[in-house]
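Support case: zinc ion complex. Customer-provided input:
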Amino acid sequence: MNENYEKMKEKLLDRKRALEELIKGLSQEKVTDSEVQDPGDQAAAATSEDIIISLQANEYEELRMIDKALKAIEDGTYGACQDCGNPIAEKRLLLYPNATRCITCQELSEER
Ligand SMILES: [Zn+2]
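Agent response - structure generated as follows:
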């Protein structure tokens, strides 16, 4: 296995742990908010709960990407662009370990 992939795996696992902590923290915050009884506070709580849910959705999405990248490392398919199949530049992978597209395809997909 490419030794850079080992480094990326470490990075991915670190990020995964951080995300899991973050999600855990957000869930606890939600429980506290729902205990608020005052009607005015309840409205505020509902808003912050919405924010927390959308934040959590982002974290879960990133977690999903990380799991996919980790699985690809295991399978030996990591680092191949999902669109064109060309290898993704290692410099890019070190910056964005859960990138699934090469820079060319990423730019194309963002233009769409
Ligand atoms: Zn590509």
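The pocket of zinc ion is lined by residues 81, 83-84, 86, 101-102, 104-105 (CB under 6 Å).

Case will auto-close in a few days if no follow-up is received.
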